[in-house]
Amino acid sequence: MTCEESEILLHALLDNELDAGHAREVEAHVAACPRCGVQLSQLRAVHTEMSSPQLRFSAPAGLRARVEATVPAARARVTATPYPMASRRTLLRGFALGSVLSGALAASLMITIMRSDQDQRIMGEVVTAHLRSLQVEHLTDVQTSDQHTVKPWFNGRLDVAPPVVDLTAQGFTLLGGRLDYIDGHAVAAIVYRRRNHVLNLFVAAGAGSEREVKTETVQGFTVKSWSDQGLSFRVVSDINAEELQEFVDRFQAAARQGASL
Amino acid sequence: MAASVVSPDADKARRFRDAALPHLDDAYTLARYLLRSAADADDAVQECYLRAFRHFDGLRGQATKPWLMAILRNVCHAVYAGNARLVFTAETGETQAAPIWREDSDTPEQAMLRRHDSETMRRLIGQLPAEFREVIVLREINDLSYRDIAEVIGAPVGTVMSRLARARSILRTAWLAEG
Q1: Where in chain B is the domain with CATH 1.10.1740.10?
Q2: Is the same domain home to A27 and A103?
Q3: Span A69-88, pLDDT tens digits
Q4: Each residue of B41-57: b (16+ CB within 10 Å) or e?
Q5: ipTM
Q6: What is the CATH number of domain B10-83?
Q7: Which candidate from A12, A58, A70 shows the least CB-CB separation from B161?
Q8: Interface of B with A in 46-75 (CB under 8 A)
Q9: What residues of A are in contact with residue B136 (Cβ under 8 Å)?
Q10: Which chain B residue shows the shortest CA-CA distance from A222?
């Protein structure tokens, strides 16, 4: 690869837009060429500086109100709802309402309706918990990239032992863990980062056995849910659906490997 | 059980809220950088959401964010055209942008770290020629992919890449000069 070729591809490398083969080629060239090496480190410094949240602006409250006013009808409900935990605890255990009630065949239609209603509400709570986590100092209770620190931290705090896997090598950096509450229940939140996006993986007890991954979009966030070995998993982020699926695949593969050790 | 019948209009409004409102800060940020004025950005974003809601039915299976950003960009250009304040020529950057290579006794990393200042970076972005400024903001701050940026500015991905490279090297040179 020549310096001219590498010059433009350096940017694509920084922007994560290169496939693995090209990325390796550019990296090899940069390692061998001091001039391009300097270029890359300077461009990376600019890139890093530009990902600072300080360069973003928040829409002023007045603008937000005026934009909201341009759209008729009811306000979005999910985020505005506080957490009436006690009342809901009586209705649900973990995420797995369906499995608790599925024996009640006589009321099956009713359950279907209820469940989807509850599911939607829980989805809203998942996104709310994600948004809440993004506020300053709320992201992690235990902050470490070491999976062997995060996993024991949940011991005694939860009645489940969530699998914690490090996916740094696959492009999802483990940031740490946190206790969160979904539907009035303490759940494990395992936090990953992809570039400057945060992923929250919520793990709760659930008897579901549907390994099939379900995808939903709530308020612009993608949520993917699945169950495995008595646990229910929900991962939420604003990265695109394909990347989130990549996370799910890698997580499932790593968790299976961990379980077989 | 509250199985209320939802009118199509209310349903459209709800879908629009869910799809478009999470991008409000992003839209406002882009408008601030494109227009470089808080008051103009305010107006542009409001106009953008008005238009977006009107045309929301035309958005089928397309990603909301680039679609919204494209509308906003059009609004911002109209603001500029109306105020006749924009010097928006594709070539202006080329003359300004000649990379001046500074010989420096610091290592490159040290040189970059000396100005670790977001204020400076904001100002430098503001000074970029418009066609470079929009791609770098869409990429780095709004976090769109090359393909999405190409859609927003209505240009091929190759153009996005070369403008981005240009924008970054101007910023790098200017930033080194700040130190």
Answers
A1: 10-83
A2: no
A3: 887 654 433 333 333 333 33
A4: bbbbbbbbbbebbeebe
A5: 0.78
A6: 1.10.1740.10
A7: A12
A8: 46, 49-50, 53, 63-65
A9: 50
A10: B19
Residue A180 forms part of a structural domain: yes
For residue A73, what are the CA distances in angstroms to A63, B13, B57? Answer: 18, 7, 17
Domain membership of residue A217 as a residue range: 85-260
End-to-end C-alpha distance for chain A, whole angstroms: 42
User: Quick check: helix, strand or coil at residue A234?
Assistant: strand
**Of how many residues is chain B composed?**
179
How far is the alpha carbon of B130 from chain A, nearest alpha carbon, in Å?
Answer: 17
Q: Which of A148, A156, A255, A149 is nearest to A201 (CA)?
A: A255
Task: Output the pLDDT for position A244.
Answer: 93
So what's the pLDDT on residue B92? Answer: 37
Pairwise CA distance, residues A100 & A102, whole Å: 6
CATH of the domain at A201: 3.30.200.100
Measured between alpha carbons, how far is residue B161 from residues A143, A170, B147 in Å?
A: 36, 25, 10
**Model confidence pLDDT, tens digit, residues A194-220:** 888 889 999 988 766 567 888 888 777
Q: Which CATH number fits domain B92-178: 1.10.260.40, 1.10.10.10, 1.10.357.10, 3.40.50.11930?
A: 1.10.10.10
Contact B52, A251 (CB under 8 A): no
Contact call for A59 and B25, based on CB within 8 A: yes
